[in-house]
Amino acid sequence: MPRNPSDKRERLTAAAIRLARTQGLDATTIAAIAAEAGVPSGSVYYYFKTKDDVAAGVAQGIADALAAQAAEHDAIGDAKAALTAFLESYLEESTTIVEFGTVLSTAARAGYSGPHEATLEWLAERFSDIGFAEAAASARAQHLLAGVEGGSAVASALGDATPLQREVAQLTRWVANASA
Question: N or C end of the chain, less CB within 10 A?
Answer without folding.
Answer: N
